[in-house]
């Protein structure tokens, strides 16, 4: 957010200009009031519009796949399949909360904010040459909501009606005027072909390459073992400003491996080109090889400025014993992050202490001001510590001696009705031994949290198959705070409300936070180049890279 300027006009005039664009139908929309790029922009600054086209980029994937439809709950989608479909809008990666037209030529939010009109481009085409029409968009919306992954019902829950308007327009009507993020969520929707799916069951898995519209199409597949995409030579949107400098390689291939160790060895042997590394051990020690020592392989840490989200040991609240927050808190004392980071993770991580780490959305200190005002109505319904303390997980000295923490854990467990008997932790009333479900869960967050929070923590999602509420949280206070996040009227309110939600999640001890880092790690064979990469890019960075023929020639000589 730009700081408030002393000159009132420097704030007011851009907002008025943006409002005027929105009223007339804008080429893009921003959650924060202004768009970085003007209506006549040629390309995103972080993309190289002169990047050469050509070459092949090979990746790895782990496990297998059994479907080419990524929009349903059934099956495991093939890696990279989403790139064959174009969406209404596409996000900018060097500004927060902004999206620009792709399939949509313009987007117009109604003055009363109770609807949004998307006008589709005349030239938008599927890969078979058929036009993308408003009828396709209406069908896509209804199908995703009725037959798609359960998250779509949550995402689109505030849409009351969708209808075609004019020759190229589709208007979405909302139940409330204050869901500020909903127009952009709709903008992230792919446009699927109604005609193609008319004689196919959308809800089932399929290995038939579906009709797409994006820069790539499926070229070949070996079911469950590999999939190859080829750049569409007459791609309809290749020359749009949002696409200049993107999707540069001709062929993208994913080869599947049984596990990460095998995949890493295959990378060092030159079986594929680019690898995103999530293991600190592999990053620190796993790449030592003749190719690395000769400079044939390059390692790069790409810093970002996005919320790092939450990764942690998540409790299954569907188990009665985990309904007691003291039990949840107690088990948190058993994780020695400091020893683990030093001895297992090569000191490469920081301890997660917020669901929104690495951003202004993370709660710090004790609540005050607007944040405290938001929390006040929930006194007695949320932990008292929310109002008085900053949450921090247990901290140890790294020696491996955590006896003090374990004593505190045993004290909490005793208060919750559990004792050690015959070297087993058993329930004082029933005598049943301690048994539980814990998983490692990952919940990514954005600079503009909103409707997805229902899917993460909302009561309605707790029992929905395939939802992201893996923990099974059913907490009326959290439901209410989620709605306040979604309907925050401005950035200041959004930040305060998100921090309030963060505190309530943390002090309920739903997870044992693990670790985080504010960058992406990539290793690559040195046959690619890229410009300076954007600060808000979480993934998909190789789409901005290009095959460098000179590097590839030198690499060939050296290898």
How would you state the average pLDDT, rounded?
Answer: 91
Q: What is the gyration radius calculated from CA atoms?
A: 25 Å
Query: Going by CATH, what is the homologous superfamily of the largest domain?
Result: Dipeptide-binding Protein, Domain 3
Low-confidence stretches: 1-23
Helical residue percent?
25-40%
- How do the strands of the widest beta sheet line up side by side? 2-11-10-9
Largest sheet: 4 strands, mixed
Shape category: globular
| CATH domain class name of the largest domain | Alpha Beta
CATH architecture of the largest domain: Roll
- The figure for the number of domains is 3
Q: Pairing-aware structural class of the strands and helices? A: alpha+beta
Distance between the termini: 48 Å
How many strands appear in the DSSP assignment? 23
Approximate strand percentage: 15-25%
What's the CATH topology label of the largest domain? Dipeptide-binding Protein, domain 3
Summed up, the helix count is 16
Describe it:
By secondary structure, the chain is of the alpha+beta class. It has three domains: 9-49 and 58-197, Periplasmic binding protein-like II (D-Maltodextrin-Binding Protein, domain 2, 3-Layer(aba) Sandwich), CATH 3.40.190; 258-298 and 523-559, no CATH class; 310-516, Dipeptide-binding Protein, domain 3 (Roll), CATH 3.10.105.10. Helix content is 26%, strand content 20%. The protein has 16 helices and 23 strands. The protein has helices at residues 9-24, 134-147, 150-155, 182-187, 194-197, 260-268, 280-286, 290-293, 325-332, 337-343, 369-375, 403-415, 452-457, 476-486, 491-507, 549-558; strands at 28-30, 56-62, 89-91, 98-101, 104-109, 115-120, 159-165, 169-174, 216-222, 226-231, 251-257, 274-276, 297-303, 310-315, 350-351, 418-421, 424-427, 438-443, 511-513, 515-516, 519-525, 528-529, 546-547. Strands 2-11-10-9 form a four-stranded mixed sheet. The protein has a four-stranded antiparallel sheet with strand order 5-6-8-7.
């Amino acid at each position: 957010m730009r700081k408030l300027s002393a000159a009132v006009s420097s704030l007011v005039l851009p907002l008025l200009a943006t409002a005027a664009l929105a009223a007339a139908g804008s080429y893009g929309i921003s959650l924060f009031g202004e768009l970085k790029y003007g209506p006549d922009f040629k390309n995103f600054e972080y993309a190289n519009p002169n990047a050469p086209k050509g070459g092949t980029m090979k990746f790895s994937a782990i496990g297998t796949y059994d479907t080419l439809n990524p929009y349903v709950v059934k099956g495991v989608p093939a890696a990279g399949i989403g790139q064959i479909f174009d969406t209404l809008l596409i996000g900018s990666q060097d500004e927060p909360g902004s999206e620009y037209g792709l399939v949509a030529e313009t987007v117009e939010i109604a003055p009363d904010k109770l609807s949004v009109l998307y006008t589709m481009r005349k030239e938008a085409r599927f890969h078979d040459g058929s036009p993308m029409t408003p009828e396709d968009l209406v069908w896509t919306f209804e199908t995703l909501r009725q037959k798609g992954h359960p998250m779509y019902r949550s995402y689109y829950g505030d849409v009351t009606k969708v209808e075609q308007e004019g020759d190229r327009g589709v208007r979405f009507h909302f139940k409330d005027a204050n869901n500020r993020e909903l127009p952009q969520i709709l903008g992230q929707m792919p446009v699927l072909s109604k005609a193609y799916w008319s004689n196919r069951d959308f809800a089932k898995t399929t290995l038939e390459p579906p009709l797409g519209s994006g820069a790539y199409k499926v070229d070949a597949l070996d079911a469950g073992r590999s999939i190859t995409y080829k750049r569409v030579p007459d791609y309809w949107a290749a020359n749009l400003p949002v696409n200049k400098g993107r999707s540069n390689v001709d062929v993208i291939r994913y080869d599947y491996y049984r596990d990460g160790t095998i995949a890493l060895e295959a990378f060092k042997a030159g079986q594929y080109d680019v690898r995103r590394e999530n293991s600190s051990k592999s990053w620190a020690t796993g790449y030592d090889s003749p190719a690395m020592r000769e400079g044939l392989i390059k390692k790069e840490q790409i810093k970002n400025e996005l919320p790092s989200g939450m990764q942690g040991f998540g409790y299954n609240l569907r188990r009665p014993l985990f309904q007691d927050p003291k039990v949840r808190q107690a088990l948190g004392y058993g994780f020695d992050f400091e020893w683990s980071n030093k001895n297992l993770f090569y000191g490469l991580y920081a301890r997660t202490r917020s669901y929104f780490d690495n951003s202004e959305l993370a709660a710090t200190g004790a609540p005050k001001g607007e944040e405290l005002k938001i929390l006040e109505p929930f006194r007695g319904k949320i932990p008292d510590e929310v109002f008085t303390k900053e949450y921090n997980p247990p901290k140890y000295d790294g020696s491996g001696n955590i006896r003090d923490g374990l004593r505190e854990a045993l004290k909490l467990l005793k208060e919750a009705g559990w004792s050690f008997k015959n070297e087993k932790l058993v329930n004082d009333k029933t005598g049943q031994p301690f048994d539980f479900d814990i998983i490692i869960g990952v919940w990514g967050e954005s600079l503009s949290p909103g409707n997805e929070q229902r899917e993460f923590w909302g009561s309605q999602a707790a029992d929905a198959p395939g939802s992201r509420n893996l923990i099974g949280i059913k907490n009326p206070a959290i439901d209410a705070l989620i709605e306040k996040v979604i309907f925050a009227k401005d950035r200041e309110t959004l930040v305060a409300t998100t921090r309030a939600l963060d505190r309530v999640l943390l002090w309920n001890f739903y997870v044992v936070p693990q670790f985080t880092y504010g960058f992406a790690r990539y290793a690559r064979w040195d046959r690619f180049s890229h410009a300076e990469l954007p600060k808000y890019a979480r993934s998909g960075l190789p789409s901005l890279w290009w095959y460098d023929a000179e590097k590839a020639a030198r690499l060939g000589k050296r290898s």
